[in-house]
């Protein structure tokens, strides 16, 4: 009887250890879990720009995509993919006349190497042509994108792009 009880305890222990190992492996190797750590895209600079009042002025905006991630370019290759878009809300005293985006880099997913995506990785810049009214305008512009790694994509996200625009 004692041998049966010891064998039952050993089996239960083995099952619990196996379940714990699977749970730990899933947390370490879960692709979505890795994306959630830190910001997928970060606005780097400039924090402040001075532009001529009422005249289109070119401002170079610098961004960084987190290592191991990519975001679709402004012109993704499929219509169902979320493009990266920079915008400035109305009523800020600053108007976005035009934004020029870099050409995306071709990227193939391991599951389908024949399908090429157009993406941004690492650091990239957007050339924004801004028109400002007279004065100091703290603008909370926005960058809308979808971050992915080689296995999974996160839901689309919009981050703030804070720029102090001084119209002189």
Note the main sheet: 4 strands, antiparallel
Report the radius of gyration as a whole number of Å: 24 Å
Q: Look at the structure and give the mean pLDDT.
A: 84
Number of helical segments with 4 or more residues: 2
**What's the number of domains?**
2
CATH class category name of the largest domain: Mainly Beta
Give the helix/strand class.
Answer: alpha+beta
Strand order of the largest sheet: 1-3-9-6
Distance between the termini: 91 Å
What is the CATH topology classification name of the largest domain? Immunoglobulin-like
The backbone outline, from C-alpha atoms, is: elongated
- Name the CATH superfamily classification of the largest domain: Thiol:disulfide interchange protein DsbD, N-terminal domain
Q: Could you estimate the helical fraction of the residues in percent? A: 10-25%
Helix and strand pattern: HHEEEEEEEEEEEE
Contiguous uncertain segments of 5+ residues = 11-35
Approximate strand percentage: over 45%
CATH architecture of the largest domain: Sandwich
**Can you count the beta strands?**
12
Plain-language structure description:
This protein is an alpha+beta fold and 168 residues long. It folds into 2 domains: 1-37; 39-167, Thiol:disulfide interchange protein DsbD, N-terminal domain (Immunoglobulin-like, Sandwich). The chain is built from 2 helices and 12 strands. It has a 4-stranded antiparallel sheet, with no helix packed on it. A 4-stranded mixed sheet has the order 2-12-10-5, with no helix packed on it. A hairpin with a 2-residue loop joins β7 and β8 (112-120). It starts with a helix and ends with a strand.
